[in-house]
Amino acid sequence: MRVLMVASEAVPFAKTGGLADVAGVLPRFLADLGHDVRVVMPRYYGVSRDQLTVLPHPLGVPMGIVGTQWAQVYEGRLPHTDVPIYFIEHEQYFGRESLYVDPLTHEGYPDNDNRFVFLSRAAIELTRLLHWTPDVFHVNDWHTAATPVFLNTVYRDEPVGRAASLLTLHNMEHQGTSYPGLMDVLGIGWEHFNPRGLEFQGQVNLLKGGLYHATLINAVSPGYAHEIQTPAFGHGLDGVLRDRAADLSGVLNGIDYREWNPAADPYLTAQYDVDEMAGKYACKRALQAEMGLPQRDVPIIGMVSRLARQKGIDVVAAALPRLLELDIQIVLLGSGEAWAHAHFPWIASRHPKRFACRIGYDNALAHRIEAGADLFLMPSRFEPCGLNQLYSLAYGTPPIVHAVGGLDDTVENFDARANTGTGFKTWTLDPAALYDTVGWAVHTWYNAPEAFAGIVRRGMTQRFGWEESAREYEQLYVRAVEHRTGRTPT
Ligand code: ADP
Ligand code: GLC
């Protein structure tokens, strides 16, 4: 099958979160299954042109009343693969260091709507430029949700309009909401500005348009696929998802074991695996040294996170004063909301022996925290899938999680009597519940080392391979093509 992955970010070229991991890694596994898969994303300033070749013809992208916008297309390969990746270069839209958020205002760029409508349509025009018609456009989140809308409207009578689409939901919180006038930029006709189309509370909502127009929809875990059909997790679009429940499924993300494997991780002081854990202890000592914490044998609780409400960090902040009374150390790496950039370093200055933090984005340190910590804290309010808890399972660092979405699906609660489970869960998210759950994990570490070692072992021997997820995506593509064309793809 021919599949075009359309995404606003992909590793290793540009990343703000797990979406980039999925868009940059899943294609490799689809290619291994024999598919002709290609990727398209913007060329932000941070994407170097060194290894890329420019296509001979420029790409014209109609933008309604804004007029046709011209872009250069650069072609490269996903690392260690033959998978082509195309970068859309447009100075005005993508010639920026930051992907979505203006570094000066900490707000989304005011023209994000136009930027990503442009990307969504550029993906379709690109296939015409390449004379390569995909069977499936695989789009991701609101940024590229307009692609299925375009396929069903302005391209309906063209060969590319027969292509199926799959919309993957990584996060329902961001929806691409804009003023009604965006309809004239989309250029698809005002009849689509209605409650069963792009209209939501008097505004244009690109994600909603995608949800109605995509052939099939999936969320990045079965748990999240279920949750988003409820008001508590649907961010206003739960009714749309209930409408489309028959076409909605969940596929868990995998781990890229080439990047996240403690037995062969170049970022670590020492490597280790489930049968030879001495290296993990060396990693712990090294982490304490790196973070300026005393090298004592107390449990270290690690966190690597966007510092956003989604991740429950406000609850962590509220629970910290009590948590820091325990004989533990906490290590935090993250970036995000402005208040957190001030608050956590201030706590660290007051509790230098127990709490250390780094504000910023640091992939190597993220690896060293996963390896050096004894427990990993991830109390997300909602979590579509979550990758860090998967990494911590693989690194022998049992996760402490709020039982939602992908966290609930991938972490099994410790049961002392049955000696089962891979982590510690809370079903309520407030400072008291967080304190209790961390306290339980810490108590287990101190007082039941054998049981704790069992939790570590079970987590480390579990596999969350992309092979399995890629096969599930393959089945979704087949179903989508069947829906769209009545034919089974070859
Ligand atoms: P989300 O995409 O919602 O942020 P995920 O758990 O799916 O959450 O993915 C987060 C990814 O980003 C992981 O690969 C994680 O290691 C990485 N990450 C997040 N914050 C940082 C940071 N400050 N430094 C390094 N890596 C980070
Ligand atoms: C989003 C979600 C996260 C998920 C990632 C990749 O950023 O917040 O839970 O793992 O997308 O699908």
Characterize the largest beta sheet: strand count, sense, and whether it forms a barrel: 10 strands, mixed
Coarse morphology? globular
Number of helices: 17
Give the strand content.
Answer: 15-25%
Write the CATH fold name of the largest domain: Rossmann fold
CATH class of the largest domain: Alpha Beta
Please identify, by name, the CATH architecture of the largest domain: 3-Layer(aba) Sandwich
Estimated radius of gyration: 23 Å
Distance between the termini: 7 Å
Residue-averaged pLDDT: 97
**Which kinds of small molecule does this entry bind, naming each only once?**
adenosine-5'-diphosphate, alpha-D-glucopyranose
CATH superfamily of the largest domain: Glycogen Phosphorylase B
- Helix and strand composition category: alpha/beta
Tell me the number of strands: 19
Uncertain runs? none
Helix content: 25-40%
Domain count = 2
Structural summary, described in words:
By secondary structure, the protein is α/β, with parallel strands linked by helices. It folds into 2 domains: 2-254 and 466-485, Glycogen Phosphorylase B (Rossmann fold, 3-Layer(aba) Sandwich); 278-460, Rossmann fold, CATH 3.40.50.2000. 37% of the residues lie in helices and 18% in strands. It is globular, with a radius of gyration of 23 Å. Residues 17-19, 22, 170-171, 220, 253, 383-387, 406 line the site of alpha-D-glucopyranose.
Give me the secondary-structure topology.
Elements: E1 2-6, H1 18-32, E2 36-42, E3 53-54, E4 59-61, E5 69-77, E6 84-89, H2 91-94, H3 112-130, E7 136-140, H4 146-152, E8 164-169, E9 177-178, H5 182-186, E10 199-200, E11 203-205, H6 206-213, E12 216-219, H7 222-227, H8 238-243, E13 248-250, H9 278-291, E14 300-307, H10 313-323, E15 329-336, H11 338-350, E16 355-359, H12 363-372, E17 375-378, H13 388-394, E18 399-402, H14 405-410, E19 424-426, H15 431-447, H16 449-461, H17 466-485
Parallel strand pairs: 1-2, 1-7, 2-6, 7-8, 8-12, 12-13, 14-15, 14-17, 15-16, 17-18, 18-19
Antiparallel strand pairs: 3-5, 4-5, 5-6, 9-11, 10-11
Bound molecules: adenosine-5'-diphosphate and alpha-D-glucopyranose.
